[in-house]
Amino acid sequence: MKICFIGTGYVGLVSGVCFSDLGNSVICVDKDNDKLSRLESGDIPIFEPGLSELVRKNLDAGRLSFSDDLIGSINKSDIVFIAVGTPTAKDGVSADLSQVFSVAHLISKNIKSHKIIVTKSTVPIGTGDKIEKILNKNKKKGLFTIVSNPEFLREGEAIKDFKYPDRVVIGANDNKVVKIFNELYRSIINKGAAFVSCSRRAAELIKYASNAFLATKISFINEIANLCEKVQVNVDDVALGIGLDKRIGSRFLRAGPAYGGSCFPKDTKALAKVGKNYNSPLSIVNSVINFNEKRKIDIEKNVYKILHNKVKNKTICFLGVTFKANTDDLRDSSAINLIYKFIKKGARINYFEPSGSKEILDKQKNVNYFDDLYSATKNVDLIIIHTEWDEFKNLNFLKIKNNNKKVTIYDLRNLYDNKSFNKSHITYYSIGRPVNA
Ligand code: UGA
To answer: In this structure, how many other beta carbons lie within 10 angstroms of the beta carbon of residue 390?
Structure first.
């Protein structure tokens, strides 16, 4: 099929490249010419394992191309995916849909033959209806069908998630179009993905509700972890014990710092706003948002406690600053919030990050990036394991001990068994577990 993706951000680029890998002819469109030249030479602006090889392969096969010609690309395609950003708006909660609507206006002024227009961007309920109105206003009735096909890709796992999803969701109020999507995703469905066909509004809500539910699971286990610390129980045992109940499921029950990234914080807030707009308050989602904010403060307080409230002139080493492993993304990473708080209190920060140094941190006074993990952990007062990179799962503690008078570790990802630190002369704190028990 002939497809075009408008927007080469995370979602547009990964999905476009993966569709070309399935044998479709795909044009990825963007306004940013520098980015397009980089992409054409196989230089990928985002950190996503396996993506660069896939871009190269499909460019060479002639199935994938990049263009700044929005109108030309739309007119060459049967299916147009809108994959532009929907960041949080100025009000701090709603989704800013200006980029989506501006693309809709451009399409409405320029289409000449029938197109299937798909929202891949995460958009609130009713956005498809509004796009339809924009096109109808420009008297394009009959020349388009608007579909919602949300994505469920995780950063760092996006190619696998595209190729082997649990489900493909198509929200279309037109059976002929549903059949076309069934064909487009045929090889993925044949590998076991469920095909969920529903109304466009239902598809829009499925996306938000999925992210909100996952965020709820994380906040739930984080709150249980707080209780575990009080009652001397290991939260990992609790997560295992409840997760084996298939009705609950074991995934997304890893206790840790506040959840972050470009999706959960933004989408939970936008969903809560939609609930408010429709006079149907989403109290659970609101609690999750509030709990996650409080989690940042709780972790910060725990650090002060570990340092006996003496933070000034202390050196704190962060292992990992991204919001999770296998990404270079800092958006809403709890590490950033913590680092700012600590430097304000007069601490010095060392950090080692497998995806490389971060400009936003390097600009800060008293924050130092090290390209070697053991140099970063030398002569420090506290080591915080913030991100669950594989590099941190087998640390050489002997080396760390040799580099420090006293070693204190706060492991926010429970990468180690706390019993193994008994008699080690390392003070080890983790999440939701009895101290060194
Ligand atoms: C999330 C969803 O998982 C994807 O399905 C969705 O497509 C994507 O948002 C999106 O809407 O685009 P992502 O933001 O890449 O994907 O990250 P996740 O792997 O979901 O992790 C989000 C946050 O939750 C991270 O801070 C992570 O550390 C935290 N987390 C995750 C936990 O603290 N515990 C867990 O058990 C799982």
So the answer is: 10
E strands, 208-365, in order: 315-319, 348-352
CA angle in degrees (0–180, nearest 5) for 413-9-1: 120
Residue with tokens 């520098």: 34
Q: Residue 120: what residue type?
A: K
Residue partners of 194: CB distance under 8 A and separation at least 6: 166, 167, 168
> How open is the CA angle 191-195-196, to the nearest 5 degrees?
155
CA 259–ligand 1 middle distance (angstroms): 7
What is the number of other CB atoms lying within 10 angstroms of the CB of residue 37?
11
* 262 three-state secondary structure: coil
Distance 263 CA to ligand 1 centre (A): 7
Q: Which residue has the tokens 């095909």?
A: 195
User: Which among 18, 228, 263, 317 is annotated as catalytic?
Assistant: 263
d(CA 216, CA 227): 17
Residues within a 6 A CB radius of ligand 1: 122, 151-155, 211, 214, 218, 252-254, 256, 259-261, 263-264, 323-324
This model's pTM is above 0.85:
yes
Contact 100, 83 (CB under 8 A): no
Alpha-carbon torsion 136, 138, 139, 142, what sign? negative
pLDDT tens, position by position, for the chain (437 residues)? 999 999 999 999 999 999 999 999 999 999 999 999 999 988 898 999 999 999 999 999 999 999 999 999 999 999 999 999 999 999 999 999 999 999 999 999 998 899 999 999 899 999 999 999 999 887 767 889 999 999 999 999 999 999 999 999 999 989 999 999 999 999 999 999 999 999 999 999 999 999 999 999 999 999 999 999 999 999 999 999 999 999 999 999 999 999 999 999 999 999 999 999 999 999 999 999 999 999 999 999 999 999 999 999 999 999 999 999 999 999 999 999 999 999 999 999 999 999 999 999 999 999 999 999 999 999 999 999 999 999 999 999 999 999 999 999 999 999 999 888 888 899 999 999 986 54
